[in-house]
Each structure stands twice: as C-alpha cells, then as structure tokens.
Design a protein that fits this description.
This protein is α/β, with parallel strands linked by helices. The chain has two domains: about 5-235, Rossmann fold (3-Layer(aba) Sandwich), CATH 3.40.50; about 245-315, Alpha-Beta Plaits (2-Layer Sandwich). The chain contains ten helices and 14 strands. The protein has helices at about 65-70, 95-100, 115-125, 135-140, 160-170, 190-200, 240-245, 255-265, 290-300, 315-330, and strands at about 20-35, 40-50, 55-60, 80-85, 90, 100-105, 175-180, 205-210, 225-230, 230-235, 250-255, 270-275, 280-285, 310. The strands form three sheets. Strands 6-7-8-3-9-10 form a six-stranded mixed beta sheet, sandwiched between helices. A four-stranded antiparallel beta sheet has the order 2-1-4-5, with helices on one face. The longest helix has 15 residues, at about 190-200.
Length: about 325
C-alpha cells in the first residue's frame, strides 16, 4: 500500500524544514564518476518543486539531467548532499519512493517482445494494482494506442512507444512523475500531443519533473532550472528568466549571413552576436534609441546588402546563452 507523505515526519535530517507543499526538495546534491571521482556529473545542485507543478530541467546533452533524475528516483546513490521526494529521503527511504513515483527514462526501456497490453499488465502487477483500478488516469493516453494493444512494443513508432511508456509510468498512480527527455527523437505532432497530456495530468495534482534539451519546451513548464555542466545556473518561471535578460536584443540579417556575423564580431560596439534561425541575435554596448541605425550604418560600411534590423524579445535560449557567457567570464574563460 502506498504511503502518504502526510503520515510521516516532514522535517529534514539536519534541521532543515521541508514545507508540506514541497514535493521534491534538493540540497547540494552531487554525483561524481571515475575511479578517483574526477568527473563531476551533478555539482552541488539545489532546488525545490511544489506539489502539482510542471518543473523543467533544461539543458544540453551531458548537462547532468539524467544523473540527477536517477538519484531522485533512487537508482543512483549521491556522493554528497540531500534530497527528499514526497517527504521521503532518497537514500534511507528508497523503497517508499519507488512505490510513490513514476519514472520514464530517456531510452525506451519496456519489454520489446511483449505487446502493449502485456507491458501494461506487467507493470500494474509489479506495483500490486490492475489496469482497471487506475484506468481513469491513463484513459486519455491509452485510447490513442489501444487499437494496437496486441502489437509488440519493439514494432511501435516513436510516438506510440512514448505513450506506452507514459502509461506504464502512471499505472500505479504515482504522486510524482519523472520524465527524462521524453520527447527526444519524437516528431513535432507527437511532441505537441505529449505536452497536452502533461497538462491534463497536472490537473490531477500529479507533480511532474521533465528534462529536455529543447529550449522551446521550457515555456510549457510552470518553473524551470537551466542546467549546464552539472550546475544549475538559474531557477525561475520561464517568463521571469526571459524578462531578466540584461540587454535589448536585435534580430539582424543580411544577404551574406556568415560574412555579416564575422563583421559584427569585429565591431567595437558589439556585446554578443550569434545565429538564431534565419537571423542573428545581437546586443550592443551603450544601447540607445539610435542603435538600429548604428547597426545598419556599420554593416553598410562593411559592404553588406539587404540588411534588416529590428528589436526582439529574449527567449529561453538567449537567456541560457547569456548565463553561460557570464559563467565563463566568472571562471576566466574567453
């Protein structure tokens, strides 16, 4: 039988109180690999996730997202730091956590030779429940794959595998759901459908932690943590992170984009310039009402044609690049 977090003492070892509305609490969590522990995968990470929240861990491959999730789901032991999930300690209470959480790893890990129905029945049995008992939780998702229920999992498309894995992670009615890069390698339509499913699950008060390398998915979360090289660079709502971008950004393009970027990097007024879709995103020193004309004039002097310059709002990706640049400056990297 699943234990309720309200039935236990929610005070952290060490005297740090865990608020009753906090589903996941992480303090200075660290994971290292190698014979001499020389590779730091997760570097003193701290954050908390509220009950019923969709919380995104955003970062590129190698940022430490999977190692973090594997510690929080009790599949890896941390080297230092503390964390609780649903009020349970990830080291001492691992059995209770495993009974309370759902985990969907990045790599499809269900039984390839078993059918959709067999996989779902197996996972329900493992957790001492049945498909019928919690069918209301997976109904919207399962209906989309039900007509293929006798098809082996190994023969499913990427989107269908994703839906089956989510059903199996939900079948025991978890209170917290961990999804490790669930939309990687999935077509855009399936990605959109998946996030719509997550919003419906949130309405059932399931706390969802989702990791992704896709910056555009960050705006679909309630709050996000931007992660790079094992460290959390910022934790806030997507709106606040984008609003905190320190400069006015400009979208700039010309007939020769490669040559234009080379020219901009040599300009004494430039702060940053990088490719962003069909444009370059540019910020300058001493920004003023005349900045657009100054950029146009400089590029014309450099021989560029078909120049277009317009102000633009910072995205999560712009904010990530800025935070990364600040981190490199702090470390003395150039």
């Amino acid at each position: 039988m699943k234990e309720n977090r309200n039935d236990i003492d929610n005070t952290y070892n060490g005297g740090i109180a865990v608020d009753s509305k906090v589903a996941v609490y992480v303090e200075s969590l660290t994971k290292m690999y190698g014979k001499r522990k020389e590779i730091v995968a997760v570097d003193s990470v701290s954050f908390s996730v509220n009950e019923g929240e969709i919380f995104g861990i955003i970062g590129p491959d190698g940022a430490g997202k999977t190692s973090l999730f594997r510690m929080l789901t009790t599949l890896l032991l941390p080297d230092s730091g503390k964390a609780t999930v649903d009020g349970f300690d990830i080291v001492k209470d691992y059995k209770k956590i495993r009974n309370n959480v759902g985990y969907m790893p990045g790599r499809f890990s269900l039984y390839q030779d078993m059918t959709i129905e067999e996989n779902l029945t197996f996972f329900a049995t493992v957790f001492g429940t049945t498909i019928e008992e919690n069918y209301n939780l997976i109904e919207d998702i399962y209906k989309q794959i039900e007509k293929f229920k006798t098809r082996r999992a190994g023969k499913l498309s990427g989107g269908m595998k994703q839906k089956l894995a989510l059903c199996c992670a939900l079948i025991h009615k978890p209170t917290v759901l961990f999804l490790d890069e669930p939309t990687t390698g999935v077509d855009p339509v399936s990605r959109k459908e998946f996030w719509e499913m997550l919003k419906r699950l949130k309405e059932q008060n399931i706390t969802i932690l989702v990791s992704t390398p896709y910056m555009d998915e960050a705006t679909l979360c309630d709050r996000i943590a931007l992660m790079q090289e094992g460290k959390i660079m910022s934790v806030d709502t997507p709106k606040n992170i984008m609003a905190s971008y320190p400069q006015q950004l400009y979208s700039v393009k010309a007939s020769d984009m490669y040559g234009m970027l080379k020219s901009l990097k040599k300009w004494h007024s430039i702060l940053s310039s990088y490719t962003f879709g069909e444009y370059a995103h540019v910020s300058v020193r001493n920004e003023s009402d005349n900045t657009i004309n100054e950029i146009m004039k400089y590029l014309q002097e450099q021989g560029h044609t078909a120049i277009e310059v317009k102000p633009t709002e910072a995205t999560i990706e712009d904010s990530f690049i800025q935070l990364l640049s600040d981190k490199k400056e702090e470390n003395g990297d150039h």
